Structure formats: structure tokens, C-alpha cells
Amino acid sequence: MEDPRNIVAPQVIRLRTERGWSQSDFAAACQRAGWDVSRGVIARIEGGVRWVADAELLQLARVLAVPVPELFPMRERHLFARGSRRG
User: Is residue 23 within 8 Å of residue 42, measured between CB atoms?
Assistant: First the structure.
């Protein structure tokens, strides 16, 4: 199996379902927020087959009402910690 095109898919699914939204509901919420996205795009993001741009991460976080780091797997969240630097 190929590597996923994004690492946020599981968290997006979890956050969406916690809100009781279908993929269509979520796409509609994204559209109301100004992001022209279809249910099919949401399905591809959640399936890990669609790459997610940085600006789209901001849109996802805004619509889901979470900070951007919450979209990433727990093992990656330390990268967002205040003052954290790679090197």
C-alpha cells in the first residue's frame, strides 16, 4: 500500500464524526466558511489519497474549531510546541 498523501486524515475523520457531521455536512460547513470543496474532496482527504495544502489545513482547523496542531497525529504535535526547534 502506498504512503498516505496526508497525515491528518484520521484526525479529520475523528473530529468530523465527533460533531455528528456526515462528509456532506462537513463539505457544506467548509463552503459556508468560504472554501469551495465537495463531499468527494472531503472523502479523498479522509481516505489519505489527497494532498492537503497548508492553507487548507487552516480551513479545516477553522471549520472544525480546533487549533491546527490538533489535526496532526499525537506523535507529530511536539513539532508545534512553543519554542520547539528541529536541528
Answer: yes
> What average pLDDT does range 60-75 have in this prediction?
94
What is the rounded radius of gyration, in angstroms, for the C-alpha atoms of the chain? Answer: 13
Q: Which is more confident, 30 or 5?
A: 30
Burial label, 15 (beta-carbon count in 10 A; 0-12, 13-18, 19+): buried
Cell of 25: 455536512
| 18-55 per-residue burial string, b: 16 or more CB within 10 A, e: under 16 | eeebebeebbbbbeeeebebeeebbebbbebebebeee
Residue 87 has pLDDT above 50, yes or no: no
CA-based nearest residue to 27, from 10, 11, 45: 45
